[in-house]
Design a protein that fits this description.
The complex is a heterodimer of chains A (312) and B (311).
Chain A lengths: L1 E6 L7 H11 L6 E5 L7 H5 L2 E8 L2 E6 L9 H5 L5 E2 L6 E2 L9 H5 L5 E6 L2 E8 L2 E8 L6 H19 L3 E5 L6 H7 L4 E6 L3 H14 L5 E6 L6 H14 L2 E5 L5 H8 L3 H4 L4 H26 L11
Parallel strand pairs in A: 1-10, 1-11, 2-9, 2-10, 11-12, 12-13
Antiparallel strand pairs in A: 3-8, 4-7, 5-6, 8-9
Chain B lengths: L7 H8 L7 E5 L7 H14 L4 E5 L7 H4 L8 E10 L9 H5 L5 E2 L7 E2 L8 H5 L5 E16 L2 E8 L6 H13 L7 E5 L6 H7 L4 E6 L3 H16 L4 E6 L10 H7 L4 E5 L3 H9 L3 H4 L4 H17 L2
Helix pairs in contact in B: 2-12, 6-7
Classes of the chains: A alpha/beta (312), B alpha/beta (311).
Chain lengths: 312, 311
């Protein structure tokens, strides 16, 4: 099974739409399991039109909790918190749990043993199904923290489901940004499809993402979405990626059928198979398969990735 | 679905800041809906109307406001966290530091001094736990803040170092840097990251109101619901900005969504090629094409912000 993560740095460049269509366009004989690790704003189930099968609460967050009956109000704990989660107050410190990293510095400092670390529910794991295809998704409860730990749980569950499915590919729709949920999404993957668009902000965010990926060394393929909205920008991306030795798998033109497909909750490739964007995605899917075949050959022969970008 | 997650005292502590300048946040749940476009244009329009504006780019994982304003990043200050540095002559191999580290980042090989091997988040629990003072502090960069002045507008921009996870710490350092001179500004505009996680909450802290940018698609509406729930929890009044408002999608669903949360639509911005060109050029449309439809919408919004907060 190959594990592929879709990332972008910048949000809203088309990760979920492309993930949904990619799953449609890979040859029918291949078994695909999907996962959504954008736990802040999970959308893949909406775009693929998948039906909910089951959900379970997750307790992936640990927080310091003050026992107010034991607290003597010395405020010693507030002096050792490095994360701004404990603030001095008149009687009992104010706790801001969402900034708490459960490091235990306050627990150790409290002379009355009034502080302890407790495990909290911070979200849900969901299983969706679209036809025969399973989608494992995570959801951070609004106002909670530790999204990276929910991503770890989504990935564990998705790997189990993919194994039961005897999947050829586990395709993971990742979060925007470059922070902890992105790093958790990257851990242990074989390949990253990095989606970008031909604008300076998207390129800047892509290059920051490439720096993060250098620590993980996956095979990388870049897809330029809405490539024709700024041809000069697309050329800049092509030349920057060439300098870095990173494969550009293809380009998708701006196409009104993309938002139309999202509005209907049907992947573009199924909804408008004749559209220009779907046509481009078919070519890209073939290029992705070739890229994956290379990984397999390299693994078999024990060679290092040829497209690695490690610079450190 | 909104639960009482925060007590009144917690909200007070979260929103407390040592200045009186009004803070407006631009947020949105979903990525790529136009948060930064709205933020730079509101800031530029307010600056053009003669106000001293601080624009805070708090999307520390993917900061782009400087690109959309074609401004260089100046006055870089590192954001650092404390990590342990072992002084072997003082170490008694007691193992207290190992026990203190809940991330299992410290390792004590037999008859040796502790080694930092895992992911340290700079909590200092090990340094505090050491009975002999053998753990000194070394400072590790996790990001940087920059400050660039351009006429009436001062951009504060924070960037997480790629590979690090402390986005929220960089946001807090950025806001501390702003706080030191916040009183000299008439208004502060904060652009947040997408999502609803702690980095976004740290950026929203202290805001008098939040503009939630969305687009009329099913995913846009879904994520708008999440950010409106978050604003309600944080007791921050929210208004909606509907970007690409003529996009064929589920535009009709925004009215019930807004009504159910008692939130108004402050502006609707149709898809506009002039706005896209200004984005690509890296200049606010209110400056490049002040008479274009999009620029008029931003200028009108800035005028309303002015009436509400600056008079």
């Amino acid at each position: 099974m190959k594990e592929v993560v879709i990332l972008s740095g910048k949000g809203g460049v088309g990760k979920s739409s492309i993930t949904a269509s990619l799953a449609e366009l890979l040859p029918a004989g291949l078994i695909i399991t999907l996962a959504d690790t954008d736990v802040d704003a999970p959308n893949l189930h909406i775009i693929t039109g998948a039906e909910p099968i089951k959900s379970a609460p997750v307790f992936a967050s640990e927080k310091a909790v003050i026992d107010e009956t034991r607290c003597i109000g010395c405020m010693d704990c507030t002096a050792v918190c490095s994360f701004g989660a404990l603030l001095p107050d008149e009687k009992i410190p104010v706790m801001l749990p969402l900034f708490c990293e459960a490091c235990g510095a306050c627990v150790a400092e409290c002379p009355e043993h009034a502080v302890s670390i407790k495990r909290m529910q911070n979200g849900y794991l969901h299983l969706f199904r679209n036809g025969v295809r399973n989608l494992v998704s995570g959801e951070l409860t609004v106002g909670q923290s530790s999204s990276g730990k929910i991503v770890d749980l989504v990935k564990n569950e998705a790997r189990n489901v993919a194994q039961d499915d005897r999947a050829d590919y586990l395709i993971i729709d990742g979060p925007p940004g470059i922070g902890c949920p992105v790093i958790s999404s990257l851990k242990g993957c074989d390949a990253v499809l990095a989606i970008t668009e031909p604008t300076a902000p998207a390129l800047s965010d892509l290059e920051r993402l490439l720096e993060v990926m250098a620590y993980f060394d996956p095979v990388i393929g870049v897809i330029i979405n809405k490539a024709d909205i700024n041809p000069d920008g697309a050329e800049t991306i092509r030349s920057r990626m060439a300098e870095r030795g990173i494969t550009v798998l293809g380009e998708i033109p701006y196409d009104i059928h993309v938002p139309l497909a999202i509005a209907q909750g049907i992947p573009l490739a199924r909804c408008y198979p004749e559209s220009r964007a779907a046509e481009a995605l078919r070519t890209i899917t073939q290029n992705i398969q070739r890229l994956f075949d290379t990984i397999q050959q390299e693994r078999n022969t024990g060679h290092e990735h040829t497209t690695c970008v490690r610079q450190q | 679905m909104t639960a009482e997650v925060f007590t009144a005292r917690q909200l007070e502590a979260l929103h407390d800041h040592p200045y009186a300048t009004p803070v407006i946040a631009v947020t949105g749940g979903k990525g790529g809906v136009g948060k930064s476009t709205v933020a730079v244009n509101i800031a530029a329009a307010l600056a053009a109307r003669g106000h001293a504006v601080a624009l805070v780019d708090a999307d520390t994982e993917a900061p782009n406001n400087h690109i959309l304003l074609s401004l260089p990043l100046k006055d870089r200050i590192d954001v650092q966290v404390a990590m342990p540095l072992v002084e072997p002559s003082l170490c008694t191999h007691c193992g207290d530091c190992i026990a203190a580290c809940r991330r299992n980042a410290l390792f004590l090989p037999p008859d040796q001094t502790p080694i930092l091997m895992g992911e340290c988040n700079g909590c200092k629990a090990c340094i505090n736990a050491c009975p002999t003072g053998a753990l000194l502090t070394r400072w590790m960069s996790v990001g940087a803040t920059c400050r660039t002045e351009s006429g009436n507008l001062t951009l504060f921009s924070g960037a997480l170092l790629p590979g690090r996870e402390e986005s929220t710490i960089v946001v807090r350092a950025l806001k501390d840097r702003l706080a030191a001179e916040a009183d000299r500004f008439d208004i502060i505009v904060v652009d947040t990251a997408p999502g609803v996680h702690c980095t976004v909450i740290a950026a929203l802290a202290g805001a008098a109101c939040a503009y939630a940018v969305t687009e009329p698609t099913r995913v846009g509406m879904h994520d708008l619901g999440l950010i409106l729930d978050l604003c309600e929890m944080l007791a921050i009044p929210a208004r909606i900005i509907l970007n690409r408002s003529n996009l064929s999608g589920s535009q009709a669903t925004i009215a019930p969504e807004a009504a159910s949360k008692d939130v108004t639509v402050a502006a609707s911005i149709p898809h506009d090629s002039i706005l896209l060109q200004s984005y690509v050029k890296g200049l606010p449309v209110v400056n490049t094409n002040p008479d274009s439809p999009a620029a008029r919408i931003f200028t009108d919004l800035a005028a309303r912000i002015e009436r509400e907060w600056l008079k």
